[in-house]
């Protein structure tokens, strides 16, 4: 415990605003946030998820967010218009240049197969137990790894045959969920409507973004294909990358909406 | 060239490929030259502080006008309001101008103009338009100078501002008329607004609706500066809602550390000012 609080003052601990540490040391639970998704491409809204989630957890007074991880999905997920993962990883890396606590991780995208979210969580959890975070190393108590997502993903837990029940349970019981609300969603309602979610609702954190910031990557791809500006919706470095590599020049979103099995993947 | 007006031919021939003309995506110039009307967009407001949403207004408006095939947007101007406007929590104009300048570092077509903020008094929107119109007639845009046809200056705003035209005693009728008749309006829709309805409900707006361009931002991007100020005062992150350089400026100068927005909503006379 003492070692962990010492690390709070070490160089690059992620603090949002003012985290009060009065004379009598508060021990907060260290947390790492993991977001899985297409990130096709990454947008300012994806990045906001992390900021909002971190602020929310800090304001409970119970948690200290040590790190954020973006894990772009494997190419074998075969979602329409999914550009190669090496591009999606590169774009996320560019987007995160100005962040001192969020990083991109390419492990999921480098596997031979697509894998379910719970497997990605298990992998990162074991990495954290072995090596600690990239910021703090092993000098601190092992952080709790939580899945970060929008309310739309929480809703997908209801879709029949999309998630294994055992996976949903493992996610909310062993890991925990931080869910950032989106326009048109009712996360409390989704929880109440599910016995598993109800049972572990103490492990589901609902964060609110008061700013309506619905920058859909689908819209961004369409705008790019139509030659419209996406400036100020994504970081400039990502836009430059997209132009340099000729990405998203065509777009199939005008076709009938495909049935997407998006197991916990943010678009 | 086929066009009698040398200015027009210069515009289509010379200006499109010249270094820093504002183009959005691909503006087609086929073998037979198209003559587009040059336009400058002016946004008045508090910009307290400037946010990504303000910046998006320009991008969406420009794309919209280009897609009509009729216009070529040459320049965008952000004109932060005078301190004497006395809106709650309005930080000094030299900060608001500085933040806008930082935000626009990465833009090759939008600039900030401090003339309005430097005047001794607050002034009505139509006066700011008149000023910039006369500057354009004299000097052209900062990009093209006087080598092109004089651009049309249009007021850029969100649909919420269009709605304020209905508020009794907020705008002079003669000013509304001048804005839509002599200048023109480019209005970017916002969630919860019905700009077509606002136009239909007003005889003046109806009459000049050909001069009111309604642009749509399909992305819900309601980054309210009011929310940003509150978040800053509460120590919450505003990263990715405003440019990093603006956030750094705010921290360096200790701006927005307190916030009065929790008090009862004040009656704001916001004559055409975007918040």
Descriptive notes:
Two copies of one chain form a homodimer. Chain A has 267 residues and is of the alpha/beta class. Chain A has one domain (29-215): 3-Layer(aba) Sandwich (Rossmann fold), CATH 3.40.50. Helix content of chain A is 37%, strand content 15%. Chain A is built from eleven helices and seven strands. The first copy, chain A, has a six-stranded parallel sheet, with helices on both faces. In chain A, helix 3 packs antiparallel against helix 11 (236-244). The longest helix of chain A has 16 residues, at 44-59. Chain A is globular and about 50 Å long. The termini of chain A are far apart. Residues 1-19, 21-25 and 255-262 of chain A have low confidence and may be disordered. Strand 7 (212-214) of chain A pairs antiparallel with strand 7 of chain B, so a sheet runs across the interface.
Question: Brief description of this entry?
Answer:
Chain A is of the alpha/beta class. Chain A is built from 11 helices and 7 strands. Chain A has a 6-stranded parallel β-sheet with strand order 3-2-1-4-5-6, with helices on both faces.
Itemize the secondary structure elements and their pairings.
The structure is a homodimer.
Chain A (H helix, E strand, L loop, with lengths): L1 H7 L20 E9 L6 H16 L3 E10 L12 H11 L6 E3 L2 H4 L6 H15 L12 E7 H6 L8 H11 L1 E4 L6 H6 L2 H5 L4 E4 L4 E3 L2 H9 L10 H9 L23
Parallel strand pairs in A: 1-2, 1-4, 2-3, 4-5, 5-6
Helix pairs in contact in A: 3-11
Keywords (chain B): ATP-binding, Mitochondrion, NAD, Nucleotide-binding, Nucleotidyltransferase, Pyridine nucleotide biosynthesis, Transferase
Cofactor (chain B): Mg(2+)
Main location (chain B): mitochondrion
């Amino acid at each position: 415990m003492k070692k962990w609080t010492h690390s709070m003052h070490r160089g690059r601990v992620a603090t949002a605003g003012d985290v009060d540490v009065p004379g009598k040391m508060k021990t907060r639970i260290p947390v790492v946030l993991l977001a899985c998704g297409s990130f096709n491409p990454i947008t300012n809204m994806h990045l906001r998820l992390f900021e909002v989630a971190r602020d929310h957890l800090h304001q409970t007074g119970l948690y200290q967010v040590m790190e954020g991880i973006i894990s772009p999905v494997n190419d074998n997920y075969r979602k329409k218009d999914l550009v190669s993962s090496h591009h999606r990883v590169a774009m996320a890396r560019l987007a995160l240049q100005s962040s001192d606590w969020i990083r991109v991780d390419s492990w999921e995208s480098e596997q031979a197969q697509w894998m379910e979210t719970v497997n990605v969580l298990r992998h990162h959890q074991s990495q954290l137990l072995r090596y600690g975070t990239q910021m703090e190393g092993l000098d601190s108590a092992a952080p709790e790894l939580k899945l970060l997502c929008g309310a739309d993903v929480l809703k997908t837990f209801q879709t029949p045959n999309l998630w294994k029940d055992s996976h949903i349970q493992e996610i909310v019981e062993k890991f925990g969920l931080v869910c950032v609300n989106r326009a048109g969603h009712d996360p409390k309602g989704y929880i109440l409507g599910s016995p598993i979610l109800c049972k572990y609702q103490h492990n589901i954190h609902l964060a609110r973004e008061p700013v309506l910031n619905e920058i859909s990557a689908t819209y961004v791809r369409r705008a790019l294909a139509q030659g419209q500006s996406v400036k100020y919706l994504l970081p400039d470095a990502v836009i430059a990358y997209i132009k340099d590599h000729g990405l998203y020049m065509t777009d199939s979103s005008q076709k009938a909406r495909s049935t997407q099995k998006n197991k916990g993947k943010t678009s």
